[in-house]
Specification:
Helix 1 (31-39) packs across helix 2. The two termini are 21 Å apart. The protein has one domain (12-167): Transposase IS200-like (Alpha-Beta Plaits, 2-Layer Sandwich). With 173 residues, it is an alpha+beta fold. It is built from six helices and four strands, in the order E-H-E-E-H-H-E-H-H-H. It is globular, with a radius of gyration of 16 Å. It has a four-stranded antiparallel β-sheet with strand order 2-3-1-4, covered by helices on one side. It is 36% helix and 16% strand.
């Protein structure tokens, strides 16, 4: 087993990728539950940006207390899993480990270190619909892209061919 350690520091922005178990495409069809799960987390945090795809999601999260970060992810996964329809089956091994067969056990996180790092991760989040489905960000309704267009950070037609080539070099999954 690897010696995996998370880096915690107060008042940081963290990029996180959370993936479904066996990459089951269940998130879009349960988008209302996913949104409810994020709202029900009792720890103080802000979602800066995000995108939901059928089998994974990317979020940029800020929290004042670093120790809450893992609790936020754990609470979100637990709330969603406990309320998900019984149609998503579990194996005996998953039941013994008290898992519901909904999420991969671990998740990827990256502490944002600079404005450039933040910009690259915002681009990556909003590029995901193009990366996976060749759907322009303006046409993907499961992301924060529209919010950033309204703020003037992106133009509505962002992610042209040049943008796509630059962003696709980032592999953050």
């Amino acid at each position: 087993m690897s010696n995996f350690k998370r880096y915690y520091q107060d008042n940081n922005i963290v990029f996180v990728t959370i993936v479904t178990y066996d990459r089951k495409p269940i998130l879009i069809e349960n988008i209302d539950l996913l949104r409810e799960s994020l709202k029900k987390i009792k720890y103080d945090f802000n979602i800066i940006a995000g995108v939901v795809l059928p089998d994974h999601l990317h979020l940029l999260i800020s929290t004042k207390k670093s120790e809450n970060f893992s609790k936020i992810i754990s609470s979100f996964k637990a709330y969603f899993s406990m309320r998900l329809s019984k149609n998503y089956t579990q194996t005996l091994e998953q039941l013994n480990r008290r898992e519901k067969g909904v999420w991969q056990r671990k998740y990827y996180d990256h502490v944002i270190r600079s404005e450039d790092d933040l910009d690259r991760h915002l681009d990556y989040i909003h590029f995901n619909s193009m990366k996976h489905f060749q759907i322009a960000p303006k046409n993907w309704k499961f992301s924060s892209f529209e919010k950033y267009v309204k703020k003037g950070i992106y133009c509505n037609d962002w992610c042209n061919f040049e943008d796509k080539n630059k962003i696709s070099m980032l592999d953050l999954e």
